[in-house]
Design goal:
Blueprint: H1 3-12, E1 17-21, E2 28-34, E3 37-46, E4 55-65, H2 72-81, E5 86-91, E6 98-108, H3 117-140
Antiparallel strand pairs: 1-2, 2-3, 3-4, 4-6, 5-6
């Protein structure tokens, strides 16, 4: 799997794409936005010999800034209900409150190159739909009004 394959998958859905390389590893990343949610796709176990670097693993990640801190109890309940993904709370260094959250989904790829843009798309759609539910959850907690996700492209 290479970054251009992921870019092709996202662009086929009309999503904006930004690419880059992480330091110091030089492994690629891809960023996009769908339905008001920002996503980062990180690549791991990449061969160093050539570009674009073929990689064995990718991870979908979405980060959220919470209007109100979230409890571990609520995040743990989320993790029990959702399969193939994990949610994490991030503590704000200044206040010590858990005011940010991160959802992740690991995708382990076959080494023979069978994964193409169209075969990878269903896993991203599953991740996106779960993130939409999480977005709805954090907006609907007691004391917060329910918001519709402002939408770039609906998947």
């Amino acid at each position: 799997m290479t970054a251009p394959t992921v870019v092709e998958m996202l662009e086929s859905q009309g999503l904006p794409v930004v690419t880059g390389y992480r330091k110091p590893s030089g492994d690629p990343y891809v960023r996009t936005r769908a339905s008001g949610i920002d996503y980062t796709i990180l690549f791991y176990k990449c061969k160093k010999a050539r570009r674009p670097r073929p990689c064995q693993h990718i991870m979908y990640m979405a980060r959220y800034k919470l209007e109100r801190p979230m409890s571990f109890r609520l995040m743990n309940a989320w993790n029990r209900r959702v399969h193939f993904q994990r949610g994490y709370l991030v503590r704000d260094k200044a206040t010590g409150l858990r005011t940010r959250a991160r959802l992740e989904m690991d995708v382990i790829l076959a080494e023979r190159g069978w994964v193409r843009a169209k075969t990878l798309l269903p896993s991203f759609i599953v991740f996106h739909r779960t993130n939409r539910r999480f977005y709805d959850l954090i907006r609907s907690r007691k004391g917060e009004g329910r918001e519709l996700i402002p939408g770039a492209k609906e998947l």
